[in-house]
Amino acid sequence: xxxHRLSGPSFASACAKLLEEKSGLVIARNEHEASxxxxxxxxxxxxxxxxxxxxxxxETLPFDLERAPSSIMSERAWMLNRxxxxxxxxxxxxxxAVNCMRLISGKDxxxxxxxxxxxxxxxxxxxxxxxxxxxxxxxAEAKAVKIPGQYATRGRVVDFFxxxxxxxxxxxxxxxxxxxxxxxxxxxxxxxxxxxxxxSVGKPLLSLDVFPNREYRLDRExxxxxxxxxxxxxxxxxxxxxxxVALSLRDHPEFMSWIGLNPSNVTTLVDMLEYDEVLADFGVxxxxxxxxxxVETRHIDIRDDLSRTCPPIDMSWRxxxxxxxxxxxxxxxxxxxxxxxxxxKRVGTLDDALALLKSLIDEKTPILFVMKSAVRARHVxxxxxxxxxxxxxxxxxxxxxxxxxxxxxxxxxxxxxYLDTVAGYxxxxxxxxxxxxxxxxxxEDIGEFQRKAALQGLVDIKEGDFLVHATKGIxxxxxxxxxxxxxxxxxxxxxxxxNDASIFVKVSELDMVSRYSGGDETKVxxxxxxxxxxAKGLQKAQEDALSGARQLILVRxxxxxxxxxxxxxxxxxxxxxxxxxxxxxTPDQKRSISEIIRDLTSGQPMDRLICGDVGFGKTEVxxxxxxxxxxxxxxVALLAPTALLAEQHYLSTRTRFxxxxxxxxxxxxxxxxKDVLKVIRNGEPCYVIGxxxxxxxxxLFGRLAxxxxxxxxxxGVDQKEQLQDLRGDKHVLAMTATPIPRTLTLSMVGIRDISxxxxxxxxxxxxRTILRQPGNSVLREAIGRELSREGQVFYVHNSVKTxxxxxxxxxxxxxxxRIGQLHGQMGKAMTETLVAxxxxxxxxxxxxxxxxxxxxxxxxxxxxxxxxxxxGLSQLHQLxxxxxxxxxxxxxxxxxxxxxxxxxxxxxxxxxxxxxLGQGILLARHDLEIRGIGExxxxxxxxxxxxxxxxxxxxxxxxxxxxxxxxPQADASELMVGNVNIPLRGRIxxxxxxxxxxxxxxxxxxxxxxxxxxxxxxxxSLKDQYGFxxxxxxEFYGYVSDHIVLKSLGLEAVQVHDxxxxxxxxxxxxATRLEMILRQTFGNKxxxxxxxxxxxxxxxxxxxxxxxxxxxx
Length: 1113
Description:
Elements: H1 11-18, E1 24-28, H2 31-44, E2 52-54, H3 70-84, E3 92-96, H4 97-101, E4 104-105, H5 107-113, E5 115-118, H6 123-127, H7 132-136, E6 140-141, E7 150-154, E8 157-161, E9 177-181, E10 187-193, E11 200-205, E12 207-210, H8 220-233, H9 241-246, E13 266-267, H10 269-272, E14 277-280, H11 284-303, H12 320-329, E15 333-334, H13 350-361, E16 367-371, H14 374-386, E17 391-392, H15 397-402, E18 407-411, E19 418-420, E20 425-429, H16 430-434, H17 448-456, E21 466-469, E22 473-485, E23 488-496, E24 502-506, E25 513-515, H18 532-561, H19 572-579, H20 587-600, E26 607-612, H21 618-630, E27 635-639, H22 643-656, E28 663-667, H23 674-681, E29 686-690, E30 704-710, H24 717-727, E31 731-736, H25 741-748, E32 753-757, E33 767-772, H26 776-788, E34 792-796, H27 803-813, E35 819-822, H28 828-838, E36 844-847, E37 860-865, H29 873-880, E38 890-895, H30 903-913, H31 920-930, H32 939-948, H33 950-966, H34 996-1007, H35 1012-1026, H36 1031-1047, E39 1051-1057, E40 1060-1065, H37 1071-1082, E41 1086-1088, E42 1094-1097, H38 1101-1112
Parallel strand pairs: 1-3, 1-14, 2-3, 6-7, 14-15, 16-18, 16-20, 17-18, 26-31, 26-32, 27-29, 27-30, 28-29, 30-31, 33-38, 34-36, 34-37, 35-36, 37-38
Antiparallel strand pairs: 4-13, 5-12, 7-8, 8-9, 9-10, 10-11, 19-20, 21-22, 21-25, 22-23, 23-24, 39-40, 40-42, 41-42
């Protein structure tokens, strides 16, 4: 490369200056620096922003079998398409050194790759009849779209998760959409949908761009060339999976390594366009040499792998020498000016940072502060006033550098500052001053009805799965059939029982059917039809549910009667504390905070559970509550289950509470400083963080008002009893990532308040979870991918004794990697090791499960778990939460030798399937189904749950609480497990919903609605997902609505009888109330019968049903 000196205090500023009127290729050392250049060039020259095109690296290894993350594929496709079609005048392409070495498809491919869809377009004209062209583009049909590259059709609705979507000149994002069609197949509407709930969200879109789900053309020419060439490098390539799928024109990850089969079809970013300028940062040549060594090492690895093809390197990569020649031909200029650091670096406390800043100010060099957020810009003004300075806010960057004087602050995105010795000023960034940057969040939300459908519904049920029929017993799902009943066809669910018996359950009775979740499915016994054993077991469960409900109500009512400390409403101090939060709150965080403030100011003791996925912001919600209480003169205690987690909480809380008057104290270990115990005993306002050491007798709180419990399920029985003694009339806030069965249970029946945080933070991606057999090849792949992007790796080896051997084995695979070890027996060295890992003094941390909670290291984005089948789902979910805490794609490798079909393997598959963000709650359901009920309601109740299943037991418990609230003397006979027998109206026709499994799930979801409000919401979701509601479904809605209302009266049946109608009350019904409503509605048309709670009404059936429904509403 030419040693040409670009002028400017930084590479970004030099590029911005040189490319004002020119096109260019700007090459950074790595992906991170390329992303930084995009922001910084835009800051220095805002007029260039529309011309900047960042080509993301694929974040895959050479010859990788893992595809690029979908979000990156979308960005690459969109940018390369714009580049190939000359959509941008004088483009400035920014890419990493690695990206410039990869072969990519040429301009012809990208020109033809984009398919634009707009309102009014015919979908068939774009993708062919039955959307056949989507298959050719690499898309796969699915029942529900969950990852890019999928589509689903239902009625007049097409759900589509495209690789690439844009709606707006400069706006691009990766999200699934729902297209509603008119009768002719033209697009009527386009709207985004939520992956978890499959419901539409946000504002309608006008258009979207769709790209192939691959970066090369997979056609006959490619396949024939691949088959021919594979024989050149292998004796018998027919045994390889890639060769087999190629015959049917199906894609395979190996094909990306064969992209250069036809040299005329490929190019590189260097050769794709003729740029006016090609600019490279210092160190680019070295970065290419390092990448080439990785390419050669990986090539040796796959050459020894007899399960796959091994193409030559030049089929997908250009060597550093060849790349160098291309750069020389383009007159590449290299930036060689040494950048002088700003001198500001956030270390230690806020006071330490201010002292350093003051020393820089004393040097009399003018300072420009560049803050990413308006909040931090205000903070700089406050800091200036603390130091006796006036910080100007009314100058632009150009104005300041033209005449540097004093101190000024402006908004902009810069990562690194500098000292410009020529112009004579110092530039300090938000990151350098505060150590973090404030980010924005997504605006997504998940409602309560959607959560219930996800937790309790029959979605994705398979033949052979266990079901519970409330009055028949435990059976197995045998399919979905249409049966002719007295001349009328009705949809039914076939359930098999013991001795090859089976029944057909009408859809009108599906509220009697639920999943069986209660233990090891290999030990489940099918019930015998019409056998007294089920009735006896059900009766015992009813009695137990009533007893359990009494206990829960006693606890609830006792707390309700207590006069809790009433906090004042938030004040200015609280508002200032909120402003210092490093991120913009997500909608779920805002709602949770509002609920907590309401609790704290109510005058009753708070008892709330915050359930949120790992890294979704539960701790900040707890901090808000802690500040509100401590700032009003009270004490707060946070209990963590381990010393390491307590230490992490202490360090992060101390930083978060900087600048406040609240003392943050730590109580762990045997020796607690006497002055700390004295502060606690004297009732001084403070925030005390510790382990169960806080529960010991020498820790006496003088003015405790709020107890925060992190991961309550991890405390032992004795500790929980001590907690129960401590809480009394105190406010209690518990936090958990995956709700354990007990907490899930209590929140479901309404005993404990729950706040769910299911909105992902800004630009957070799902962790890609990969289940693999253990071996050196998978370790080289996983670790190599992370280290190649300068990231870090958690390696979970849950044995202290053999940990040194494990670390030595990894050192043999990666001799240059810095490897640390962490386990619970290290004492104080544990914290020191973790801090060193946070500072990137280690590349790989071999550790036990001591890291499963509370560790926040955004640069660590690969997790490898040995013997993953030895862990429970909740623990695996916590471990997976250690990675994916930044905007990078993260990976969790679960290494397991478990056999398919075993409980252990089911857990692994559940983890793979629940990779989407915010699905911790769904894992709780999987845990119930796979691991069993465990500690849901204690050992006594677990036996009954095993006998009748979790869902039915929960239904009885919910009823018991409702019944006892109305009548404390009620007995078990008043718990109703049946439904109301009234004539069925309407159905979900197969012409509207062809898939039987979908029909079953929707029947159960509609019939399982507990209120008309919930039914209305579910009908709205149905219309949203299918585009319209047929007349038969509207009739079925009316039937279900009537059923819900009549059920509230405790009816068993409303039937035709001779000339009139017979109304039968269930055992749980109130005879007095039933007769009163009947006589008020029908007067002397009502007569009693010999049977208790049974009446005759001499009016037609339809009129009686209508009259009762109107009276009850």
